[in-house]
Amino acid sequence: MMAFTRFAKIVPTRGAQSSVLAVMLLCAGASASAAGELASAWTASSLSKVRLIGGGLEKSIWQAGVEISLKGEAHTYWRNPGDGGLPPTFDFSGSKNLKSYKVAFPAPTRSGDPGSQIFGYKREVIFPLTITAADPEKPVVLNLHINYAACENICLPAEGKVTLELDPRIDGGALKARISDYQARVPKPLEGPGTPSLKISAMPGNEKQWRVDVQPALDKDADLFAEGADGWFFDTKRLPGGSFQLVLAEKPADAGTKLPPVTLTLTTSKGAFESLRHLDAGP
User: Which has the minimum average pLDDT: 122-136, 138-152, 164-178?
Assistant: First the structure.
């Protein structure tokens, strides 16, 4: 985990504290209704800002999203940040009429040099949310406390506290399409019909390493990411001919010989795919 050198400035979301402010908020809400969009105010930090957006109600399920906008060449992290970094955490414990929620992670891109690889997003990202209300007839009030990192020349921890009321009377408007765009970037199950196939075979060597062959042949920008259980870390790199090398880089000191399953995320020009795989323990 990298050491952060500075702390980001946090601009907290402000609630209605006077009748004048209440009127202003009502006017803002009316504008959002007229535009057919659901969005909270932004919470800004040094290199980024964050807000909640709503995409409308479909079959008793709300579609929403956590949007992070990044300045310049700054990046933020995927759930597996790479060789160092801070993945985002989402706390909705202060929400009202919220029965359940699910946060989805769009497929990342890889940047940085060997030994300092970054898995994440540049410019912007929307983490799609699937929201179920405790009482479908009433609005859901989302209160999110998010911790994440925004990094450029230095890496700054960032925090946001944002609130959004999901009103069934308001459709998602243009934000619905943006949420759907990022939902389409979330990896799909690799075992589905018409998806690529993976063949994993052990490679000789002192370290535990495997060759991952993909069919049909991949485009030049395809990539493979590997996530192990707590304390288990795997590296991947592209091999000549379109295959990948998967290497066990680190494991817990008290781990035995049995390998835990690994989540493989494959990104291609035709979409991203995900699969949980068991690896052979032998060479």
Answer: 164-178
Q: What is the dihedral of CA 52, 58, 60, 63, to 10 degrees?
A: -20
CB 83 within 8 A of CB 116: yes
Contact 177, 66 (CB under 8 A): no
Provide the pLDDT for residue 36. Answer: 56
pLDDT, position 7: 29
Structural tokens at position 55:
């995409």
Instruction: Say how far apart CA 282 and CA 70 lie, in whole Å.
Output: 44
pTM of the model: 0.84
Residues 144 and 64 occupy one common structural domain: yes
In the predicted model, what is the mean pLDDT of the chain? Answer: 85
Q: What is the mean pLDDT of residues 158-174?
A: 89
Residues 51, 154: one domain? Answer: yes
Average pLDDT over residues 197-216: 88
Contact in structure between 225 and 108 (CB atoms under 8 Å): yes
Using CA atoms, how far apart are residues 264 and 210, in angstroms rounded to an integer?
13
Residues 120 and 172 occupy one common structural domain: yes
Domain containing 106 equals: 19-186
Q: Does 141 lie in the same domain as 94?
A: yes
Average pLDDT (178-194) is 92
Q: Verify that 215 and 178 share a domain, yes or no.
A: no
Separation between Cα atoms, residue 94 and residue 243, nearest integer Å: 46
Instruction: Look at the chain and report how many structural domains it folds into.
Output: 2
- 96: DSSP letter: B
Phi, psi dihedrals of residue 270, rounded to the nearest 5°: -100, 10
CATH number at residue 234: 2.60.40
> Same structural domain for residues 150 and 78?
yes
